[in-house]
Design goal:
Strand content: 15-25%
Strand order of the largest sheet: 3-5-1-13-10-11-12
Helix content: 25-40%
Mean pLDDT: 96
Radius of gyration: 27 Å
Largest sheet: 7 strands, mixed
Low-confidence stretches: none
Length: 714
Amino acid sequence: MTTVEQTIGAPLTRADGPQKVTGAARYAYEFPIPDITYVWPVQSTIARGRVTEVDPSAALALPGVLAVLDSGNAPRLNADAEVGADLFVLQSPEVAYHGQIVAAVVATSLESAREAAAAVALSYAPEPHDVVLRADHEAVYVPERVTDGSPGFVERGDVERALAAAAVRTDATYTTPVEHVSPMEPHATIAAWEEDRLTLHEASQGPHMAAQVMAGLFGLDPGEVEVVAEHIGGGFGAKGIPRSPAVLAALAARVVRRPVKIALTRQQMFALVPHRAPTIQRIRLGAERDGRLTAIDHQSVQPRSRIVEFADQTTSSTRMMYAAPDVRTTVKLAPLDIMTPAWFRAPGHTPGMFALESAVDELATELGMDPVELRIRNEPELDPDTGKAFSSRGLVACLREGAARFGWERRDPAPGVRREGRWLVGTGMAASHHPDYTRPSTATARAEPDGSFVVRIGAVDIGTGARTALAQVAADALGVPLTRLRLEIGRASLGMAPFAGGSMGTSSWGWAVHKACRALLEEVRGYAGVVPDGGLEVVADTTEDVQTRAELSRHTFGAQFAQVRVDGDTGEIRVDRMLGVFAAGRILNPTTARSQFLGAMTMGLSMALLEVGEVDPVFGDFANHDFAGYHIAANADVPKLEAHWLDERDDRLNPVGAKGIGELGIVGSAAAIANAFHHATGVRVRDLPIRIERSREALRTMRDRAGKRGSGVR
């Protein structure tokens, strides 16, 4: 075959761009399915207790209504399915959280289903509920494992002894609130049965995993469930597995023996889609006068639901970021009457690194040391957590490159002294980290007699540009131009593939695609380079490849810098500039990679200044459950946003050399902004988000301090 120019590394536009801008791309809810019906959930108005009666008569009397489902008449799910209890929809009258699905209406139109759902009469036996996270919660405990598989409690060395002996110590508590996953496309499903075969058009980050979950719930073989996820409008972890609306759609379709649609409203998303767990984190640091860390104690208290244990890996980054000999990390869970928290972009690492990187900044202030230099001084040679060698570790290079690009050397380290008119101006920085996960995957490559190629893999593109990047990998592995290649993704039937989460998608899928394409070339060579009439096809599986990789510590790193202005009169906060430099292996497509980094950094800004789910302790739900009350940052909220990366070539990852990047950009962003706020005002705010109320409180503190200095009070 003729050698063609490599496409990996080329800034190609998205392959699916024309489909999306013309409206030709079909999302889950948009597939034309004949004889369609609609299901509308009836949600609990209590936070704990049980449903004592469901009266469907008024709903059933309305035109177009086909059925009313509740825990007494819904089809039974497989009780032995190894899934979370929150997926056993309508299997019990027990209520575990406000907004839980307790009944549902199926009708021939969306309007009829919604009207009838409002007519269903329910009676409850409510019980006292508890929805407020407290560090001293009486039921708090340390879980055996957190979501990355590490123990809930880890200690190396003697932390208390090291802290007592430290020349410099800091001790502070940081909090992060509930954050809601709010993708542009809400959760949506079309469920259809053909005898015992279930097909779901599903807004899913992982069709293969979704098929396994649904097969388990309905007592089917995984091959009897097809999940179609051709185009996804964002996920950020919330669509990693099917959620209760998808299960409800499948139940309803089985009852009415017709296909059923559901798409959550934005308000329903806040109640029925898992959120990022709030945290209360205490971090104690001990260091020598030269800045070398001697001890780190990081404790996080976070909630779980009463029905499912979910423990975010909030403290895991702390154990490997810096070269401290004595380290202790503890995750504690408080069971509450809430929806089960779950994955949200860079789960655990995002809130955990906010606390750690804020604490390191506080230590730098205490030492009178530059925060960039403090981090460089504590750079480890080996992974402090595992003792393994790093496959690559570009943190120091990111710090230096970022500082140079940002103009950090011109920074006056004194806080609260720089003004531009009425604005207080400050700069801050923080490190970013995310593990590099790679999971086994399969892929199929096929050569056609006409000289074209087809590559099939059960991957999904949730808006990251995965379609484009995988096509680039396949084209280069085959040595053909993209015009001779067709890529098929987005179906469970295309084979085992990890879901698009944990920044593992492209690196895992790319390995399988590369392996399949290279194996296909060998097959073609066996036919003297001529593809027979029936074509040639190869299936590749990377399970053994992944399992036999060298024992190394694989991670991605970055350095985030921010400039913040605070109005000295009103407390208004503006982020003038954000800059990130990242070390994340081989960048397959600069255009889509930059988009990922910029989007994630904007999400970090949103976390720092805007996003908070306000828990209502009286009713047990969220007081702000729409975009009128839950605010999210947009591109207009930061005039200058820059993403850069190192040319990091790590040949001990996978044949493509790719690492995940989707989540790295959010980690560290909020800490950089909070640290910049401190530099602007001289007041440390440790509770996110830094909304105007907290900004004004900081200004009052600033004025009080200035008044005491002016009066000679010390």
